[in-house]
Amino acid sequence: MGEKMAMAKAINESLRRALDTDPKVLVMGEDVGKLGGVFRVTDGLQKDFGESRVIDTPLAESGIVGTAIGLALRGYRPVVEIQFDGFVFPAYDQIVTQLAKMHARSLGKVKMPVVIRIPYGGGIGAVEHHSESPEALFAHVAGLKVVSPSNASDAYWMMQQAIQSDDPVIYFEPKRRYWDKAEVDVEAIPAPLHKAQVVREGTDLTLAAYGPMVKLCQEVAAAAAEEGKNLEVVDLRSVSPLDFDTIQASVEKTRRLVVVHEAPVFFGSGAEIAARITERCFYHLEAPVLRVGGYHAPYPPARLEEEYLPDLDRVLDAVDRSLAF
Amino acid sequence: MTVDSSAARKPRRSAADKAGTTGSTTGATGTNTGTAGAQSGATGTKRSTGAARATRGKKSTEPELVQLLTPEGKRVKNAEYDAYVAGITAEDLRGLYRDMVLTRRFDAEATALQRQGELGLWASLLGQEAAQIGSGRALRDDDYVFPTYREHGVAWCRGVDPTNLLGMFRGVNNGGWDPNGNNFHLYTIVIGSQALHATGYAMGITKDGADSAVIAYFGDGASSQGDVAESFTFSAVYNAPVVFFCQNNQWAISEPTEKQSRVPLYQRAQGFGFPGVRVDGNDVLACLAVTRWALERARSGEGPTLVEAFTYRMGAHTTSDDPTRYRGDEERAAWEAKDPILRLRRYLEASNHTNDGFFAELEAESEALGKRVREAVRAMPDPDHFAIFENVYADGHALVDEERAQFAAYQASFADAEGGR
């Protein structure tokens, strides 16, 4: 069986395994070497694999992603770190106009096995640009894959799978879950990277979430159970592609769906899920698909983030509204 | 044909010795931009210092640049760079001439095809043949090229079939060729992005322990882009074997170079800690020599170099552009006097480097190329409808599969309707 470890440690172990297994794997980013990353996710990797494999880069996000593209063209498999969610935008051009399209433009001749790690989301009392959830901006772009683990075990295995993928993968790490421990079985046969998982069975309503909100939804389901409501929780794990089949199967059973994410609701991934599930499950639904997420406002200062972020009560409120239809 | 580049590899040290430390050496009209100290990485900044000294007090309209062949076709000596073309034969020179003539012909044909509605757009290289052929022929097969969208002459040097360049301009693909087939990356439309790809690729070469080099092409407008500055930073920090080849064709669509920079572009390199040099971009011999020098630096572990080829875009930015709105005829006329092809022709004729039939045979070859390009474009099939869904992902994607199936069903519905009629 596995060992209990925190998510940050699980990602570290996963990177270590990838560096050890494949000499073409590189880790790149600001402060990833000696410091081990600001969250220590890359702790000790440079010491063990050297400066040529674990590369401290200049403070230039476009440069980090742009040179990773060049390294991938040369046959390397770079795993780059963007230090925080809000810092990805200087690299957004390279990601969207170059990385995402290279395989298609070359008619399949060129592969782009680049992983972009982005610690994301709020709840840790950080300053501006350190708490955002920009996943929908990447999921909207064809050519990119977007995933977000919710626990240490998935973090470990999804990183292995992301590195092995010949497509660019944006790997969103829920930073407020970095210190949550879970059992990680490094000998396991993991679920496919883009497969959603039912993490709690239920019959009355489906809660769908990914990354940092999965734990919240499990807490919501536990609280609702005390009121006699039996909620199912689906951990989506992958935002692009989205595993609609698993959500559909759940909704056909429960007939109600609430989608929860930290990102603003407007044009967010919840909107896409609501639209498609409405198409697929129109005759099964007893209530419109509801969404709980951030507001159409800049991520607020830390003293207000508890108001902004979905919490137990806001999700329970949505559950009540759905059940009232 | 290719120019034997072995001459460029051998005399690097001897060239430095020959040049000594006397700084700029001038030809009839050309002035070297720097000192021979730049032959070693440690003194790389000396070149830029020398360059700054050389241009001080001069008007920017009279740029100091490396020149081996004057506009009149007269060969001028250059203590620093002559060594890099020392082994060049008459046949090599005819080859360079042929490359430039055929590239210009291909370009003219593509422009005509755009006017005839066969291409959606064309970015002409007219006037920049020497910069592209000179630098392109300095490359080894194992070097890697990252072009912008105007490097038709470099593509020619790499052996990319010119008709392959036309697919994206005709709208049948967004790139099309296999970049690894000729070590010639896809054209990049977003200005300056490819300078970072080149730098990353060059970093990979270093990791592999190989001695290839990378060349990144971009224009004067791209020098304003953050990506180009970041690629300077990364390449300097990692000592990457990359040559930045900036074709300063004076105009970024309607904006002159003065709207991009207060200092001559090659001087940008100084602040990043590597040498920059300005070469007469209409002098194919000088472009060949300077690029060989820069590639040799890259190969021998001395890191990046910025080459600014001072040239002129004789035509429009693209076929959608109207240069009469922003520049006068007299400017183009002044540059026509410096035409790269005419210049080499004068030299070849004065040196008796051609036989009687050479120009006539080349004219016939040029005609044949034009015909081939014309026919190839018109015969280019539209892509299959399902190409929309191909190669979006290497490993596949559920949404793409779903939408492909929907599209197929929708297409099939027309066939059903036809059948049922």
TrEMBL record, chain A:
Read off the InterPro entries from this record: THDP-binding, Transketo_C/PFOR_II, Transketolase-like_Pyr-bd, Transketolase_C
Listed Gene3D superfamilies: 3.40.50.920, 3.40.50.970
GO molecular-function terms, A-Z: magnesium ion binding; oxidoreductase activity
Would I find Transmembrane among this entry's keywords?
Answer: no
Give the domain of life.
Answer: Bacteria
Annotated keywords? Oxidoreductase, Thiamine pyrophosphate
* Protein's name according to its UniProt entry: 2-oxoisovalerate dehydrogenase
Origin species, per record, is Streptomyces fodineus
Residue ranges of every copy of the Transketolase-like pyrimidine-binding domain listed in the record: 5-180
Q: Which Pfam families match?
A: Transket_pyr, Transketolase_C
Q: Which cofactor does it need?
A: thiamine diphosphate
UniProtKB/TrEMBL annotation, chain B:
Annotated stretches, region: Disordered = 1-64
- Show the InterPro entries listed in the entry: Alpha-ketoacid_DH_E1_comp, DH_E1, PdhA/BkdA, THDP-binding
Q: Does the keyword NAD apply?
A: no
Entry cofactors: thiamine diphosphate
Q: Which residues form the Dehydrogenase E1 component domain?
A: 98-379
GO terms assigned for molecular function: magnesium ion binding; oxidoreductase activity, acting on the aldehyde or oxo group of donors, disulfide as acceptor
GO BP field: branched-chain amino acid catabolic process
Instruction: Please identify the protein, giving its name as recorded.
Output: Pyruvate dehydrogenase (Acetyl-transferring) E1 component subunit alpha
